Fold this protein.
Amino acid sequence: MKVLSADEMRRVEQESAKIGLTTDRLMENAGKAIAEEVRCILSDVSQKHILFLIGPGNNGGDGLVAARHLHDWGARVNLFLLGKRAADDKNLGLVKERGITCYKDLDELDERLLSASAVIDALFGTGRSRPLGGIFREALQQVAQTKKERPELKIIALDLPSGLDSDSGAVDPAALYAEHTITLGFAKPGLFNPPGAERAGLITVADIGIPVYLANGVTTELITDDWAKKVIPRRPLGANKGSFGRVLVVAGSTNYIGAAHLACSGAMRVGAGLVTLATAASLQPILAAKLTEATHLPLPEASPGIVSAEAASLVLSELKSYNVLLLGCGLGQSEPAISFIKSILFQPGSAPLPLVLDADAINTLAKTPGWQQQFPGDAILTPHPGEMARLAGVSVAEVQADRTGIAKRVSLEWHKTIVLKGAYTVTCAPDGQCRISPVANAGLASAGTGDVLAGVIAGLLAQGLSLFDAAALGVFLHAKAGNMVSARLGDAGMLASDLLPVLPLVIKQLKETQIKK
């Protein structure tokens, strides 16, 4: 599913007009689709009191069409017309013909809000970039205040919450916190970037009749179940463990023993045929008790629980037996560990197989001036925002202000596949392709979930997926597992290990659902 910037959306709409999809036709389609989504959200709209805030532009026009349909389905609809509309506005005329009450000031808003089941924000869509002021700000503030007093009031935004920048996710302070955003035609990047993501709530993309091929040139997409099902590795009946790849996981240290267990388990739980853990020798007995299905490569130590720099030669000598190397989870930032990581990554001809770099491997790169020149080949890097900030030499705030933009830029510059973790994780390839996870789950904000993700990606990569597909699919499966766990446990107290037994269930569920035509 494509994700379009404001300029891309305008171009697609212009192309739509050339094939007969006029603004009026799109507005009619949008309003009907919005009304149907509202009916789903409220379960039954009959006799429900629905209040619309109608702006002066096309977003307001979409709202007028939706209001008409909801009225025809039995809802009690009130409109607040908070902007000038043309005297010959067809949709306004159709609303008035039905006797729908239209207010032109805010005198009645507080009273109407007291009995409303839902407020529909149809003030401004992708075209609004100026600060909200005057009657618009006042109306939104009144709704926000009522929401505090009446938490059951549903707030639904059309296309975007008014005041949210569709490209960057920047928000006006008056922008509402919507429970639902019904975005039109295609998803918008600002809905998945903080702070806008926090205001959008549950996002639904409504089909308004624009042919998908008009957006073929767009390189940013939202990951969907249908895409994931097509990419999941196949499991032939005549296969053996070698058919599904061999992963060498180099991980763990005295302070981060669990990271090694979680990473290996993540790879196994998505179907890797064989996983070997290479870790400091004194940790191997502990981890062998937890990882009964893995094989083990004990590594020489600089001190108990800390791998030695010299251990790199042993790892490099074993790589010919594996399909993927996962490096970094819980190795620590001791001098021996840093030297060990550099010896694997920067020696001429080293690490000739696909690489997944996580945690301390990424931190080591950040401490190495000119690492891009010393490590020119492609690899999957999985930084969280802090690690990305260190790698790119910017602040965390700058990373979070433009997650997709910075991930795309550094992926191209470094020639690496980037997985920028966080709510709505972004995965970018060096050729400009980008996929955004549709999931934000606070339950995943706990220690060890990143180690599971790194293992999942490595396990998929070992089964023959491209770096980009393995990274994006790994992100999606990990996020879906998080949702499945939080549906059972809630979003507090979820542990990284809770994801492990759920990952096969997510894959099973995807395989059993039919791809939409």
